[in-house]
Amino acid sequence: MGWLADETGLDKCAANFVPLTPLSHLRRAARVYPNHEALVYGDIRLTYRQYHDRISRVASALTDMGLQSGDVVATLLPNIPAQAEAHFAIPATGAILNTINIRLDVDTVAYIFDHGGAKFVLADTAFLPLAEAAIAAMEGQGPVIIEVADPQAGHPASGRHMEYEDILAKGDPAFDWVMPQDEWESIALNYTSGTTGRPKGVVYHHRGAYLQTMGMVISWQMVLHPRYLAIVPLFHCNGWCHTWMMPVIGGTVVCLRDVTPKAIYHAVSVEKVTHFGGAPIVLNMIVNAPDEDRLPFDHRVSVLTAGAPPAPAILKKIETCGFDVMHVYGLTETYGHVTECYWNEVEWGTLPEDDKIAIKARQGVASPMMDDVTVMDENMGQIPMDGATQGEIMLRGNAVMKGYLKNPQATAEAFAGGYFHSGDIAVQHPDTYFLISDRAKDIIISGGENISSVEVEGTIMHHDAVSLCAVVAKPDDKWGEVPCAFVELKEGATATEDEIIKFVRSHLAGFKTPKQVVFMELPKTATGKIQKFELREMAKKL
């Protein structure tokens, strides 16, 4: 058995075992980088000492107002300082943070308030009507509203509710944070998009959030003092956990309330932003920004993109604009992105440019905090890594949720066989890098042939007149269903249905060619994802 058979006196204790939590990042940063800029928003500039002070005051004030460990505090906030502060202040009371999508309808917000059991809600002045209407629609008692005014964005306090800065002023900057006794304790509650019924409540733990932040520093190859632009909504997987990560490396969070090409270029040029994340639609905005919205900058900007497979055409264009893009992949259930398309310069550096771009469009391999990410068949067997056979992406590791709140059946189904079942369909290449073919629900089956909507979309995006597109199934009497393309053109550009169809036919097999093309502004979520469920309903009526 060896000497390990007798481990007398080698137990865990306060000196050698501390529960992992991202709260520890900010406590350390306040000591190590006290005068370094932590957060920027317009004319607001906070050092780490000031940031920690404000967060402690919020935690203290909420505790004095009756907030207890295990309670839930919701937010209805855009990416403004209070939303970043809430990510530390709420858990620092022992409570659980529930950031809610500000674009949801009244009924869904009321459901989330009720299902999550929020005791308070921090609501931006612009979204007070949504919070108030949702609470009015509830049968039981709703959360107490704390208004977060934003005067510099044109949203002064309404006076109808207690205001965030007022309660903060009453708090104690020396408040003793409530650190988790067990790293499995819940830190956040996030709701899925709910496009097929009621949204599910995804529960995160302190351990997963901590390890996500540490693994991300490695994946993104970050060094000290990056300047991070908060484009990813903090109500979406807690902003991919980037706000929790920044204190690890003494980074600066630059808040962005409204995502526009002009605002992005301003942040990069004037605020010297070095990093940001965003859906492919953000890349599209940058590439197609009018000249008057662009400002010059003299550094490369590192960008993570996720949410939908980026079109190779967009990846090719954006690099010439000064942005280095790495494709990542994840879900609400995985704290944000948990794979990376790590670039192998030795093997790929001499490839033709189009081949390089095709590789960069892959979702890649598991990030450091994950045990395994692979693609399996319906029997949970590894698919052939031939770049052609399709299967479902399966994930296992420390950055996987605790489960779905009050839904043990859905949790058990999601974790069947010891992996999280993503619902995403992909192929895997011989080097183990995987590439999403489609969401299972987005595969188009026409005359018995499987058509990847992603492949057709990628082809259409190469057309010079196209800004965005989405391809969905349209019912068809002969073939069962056929591809239908919804296309958003670049400003000032023109194209016809026949032109788009001929363009696709010149690149893909005939059965993959859209049988109808609709030109329109595409419906999008708050994170820039195209809402295909709306387009599927439209296609049924065509």
TrEMBL record:
Residues 26-405 form the AMP-dependent synthetase/ligase domain. It is an enzyme of class 6 (ligase). It comes from the Bacteria. Residues 455-529 form the AMP-binding enzyme C-terminal domain. The keyword Ribosomal protein does not apply. The keyword Lipid metabolism applies. GO terms for molecular function: ligase activity. Its EC number is 6.2.1.44. One of its GO terms (biological process) is fatty acid metabolic process. The lineage of its organism: Bacteria, Pseudomonadati, Pseudomonadota, Alphaproteobacteria, Rhodobacterales. It catalyses: 3-(methylsulfanyl)propanoate + ATP + CoA = 3-(methylsulfanyl)propanoyl-CoA + AMP + diphosphate. This is 3-methylmercaptopropionyl-CoA ligase. PANTHER family: ACYL-ACTIVATING ENZYME, BUTANOATE--COA LIGASE AAE1-RELATED. Keywords: Fatty acid metabolism, Ligase, Lipid metabolism. Belongs to the ATP-dependent AMP-binding enzyme family. SUPFAM superfamilies: Acetyl-CoA synthetase-like.
